[in-house]
Amino acid sequence: MKPRQPRNKEMPDFDKLNDRIIADSPSGPMLVIKTNLDPKNVTDNNPYYDGEDVKDPKEFKEYFEE
Hints:
Helices cover 14% and strands 0% of the residues. The protein is low in regular secondary structure.
């Protein structure tokens, strides 16, 4: 099967790039620190909140306010 849009010929092959580091996700526990610079509302700048209504908003806020 041929691709619908062939890739850009000027783009380098991803496997041959040597100027990037792709780190594996950590296998151990992580330390997360809340500071006074964090937003008061847990939905502001939260990558896990996509702007839609969540199933249980109370549980969502409690999880991120800990």
